[in-house]
Amino acid sequence: MISGVHWLDASLIGLLGLLVGSFLNVVVYRLPKIMEREWAVDCAELSGKELPAVEPFNLMVPRSRCPHCSHQIRWFENIPVFSYLALRGACSKCKKPIGARYPAVELVTGLLFYFSASHYGSTALALAWATFSALLIALFLIDFDTQLLPDDLNYLLLWLGLVIAALGWNISLKSAVWGAVLGYLSLWSVYQVHHFLTGKVGLGHGDFKLLSALGAWFGAEHLLAIVLLSSVVGSIFGGVALLVGRLAHKDIHFAFGPFLAGAGLLLFVIGPPTLVHWIPFIFPFSYAPG
Fold first, then answer.
1. How far apart are CA 4 and CA 239, in angstroms?
2. Half-sphere exposure of 255 toward its Cβ, with a 13 Å CA cutoff?
3. What is the distance between the terminal CA atoms of the chain, rounded to a whole angstrom?
């Protein structure tokens, strides 16, 4: 933690994180649907068909509603975490349960914003890392739900990492650029080899872009650590899924994006130097830091 950072400043940024987390819930639900609408429009234009008129649907319109009874959520029912507790996790009208993931996303986002401010102080870099964490949370959940990694979020994460490196706030620009290049090429190469040998698609192009973006933030020297940590995250998640019966059918598979995003968030919290020292104990035959 940087000396001189007042806990109140970090707490205020943490409260901002709660609000951002509430917005992330909207992004996670609506952005894939917005993408589907855009694809439908593109397909209609190419085929010369006309789509029927539909109501506006974006990140701001329409207002949030209960998925069960369409009750419009009022402002005092939409206060992050607190409204969920006050409503006892149920809709005020139909009393159907509200998913616990909503307050969980708000709380995790708030904690990561607080961590960013307590570590980097009341600076632009703290806000940059807070934005980094918010984007990864959104990418994690969208890919988990839909197996999509939106380019809009991937590219924003990538360019933000390169920009702060160019400004001298984080790692060197050289390390960020090579991290982005090698991050993309590494998974792209794995994809090509796997496809050549099996004829199947093992990774999505969004995974290439996400690792490229993480490389821009952490640098080329930490790409291997990110991939190995994502394997740990995936192993833990797979083990939990086995315990709860999510893998009852062998054909069920999980996207790789959430594991990459989870690795990026963990690396942000524990720090690359810490992970580099732990990697030899986790993978004693696969990694030797220079």
1. 42
2. 22
3. 27
Take residue 243 and report the two structure tokens written for it: 């315990």
Q: How far apart are CA 166 and CA 204, in angstroms?
A: 29
Percentage of the chain exceeding pLDDT 90: 38
Cα dist from 168 to 20, 24, 173, 174, 217, whole Å: 26, 29, 8, 11, 12
Report field, pTM of the whole predicted structure over 0.90: no
DSSP state of 72: B
The string of pLDDT tens digits covering residues 94-110 is: 888 888 999 999 999 99
250 is written with which tokens?
């062998």
Give bridge partners of residue 72 from the DSSP assignment.
Answer: 65
CB 202 within 8 A of CB 194: yes
Specify the amino acid at residue 80: P
Torsion sign, CA atoms 68, 73, 77, 80: positive
- The single residue listed with the structure tokens 């690396």 is 267
CA pair distance 264, 44, nearest whole angstrom: 38
Which residue(s) pair with 65 in the sheet?
72
Distance in angstroms (rounded) separating the CA atoms of residues 76 and 248: 41
- Domain ranges in the chain are 1-122, 123-290
Q: Could you tell me the two tokens for 139? A: 């990418």
In Å, how far are 116, 184, 209, 230 from 193, measured between CA atoms?
A: 39, 15, 18, 20
Question: What one-letter code names the amino acid at 56?
Answer: P
For the CA atoms of 183, 185, 189, 190, the dihedral, rounded to the nearest 10 degrees, stands at 10
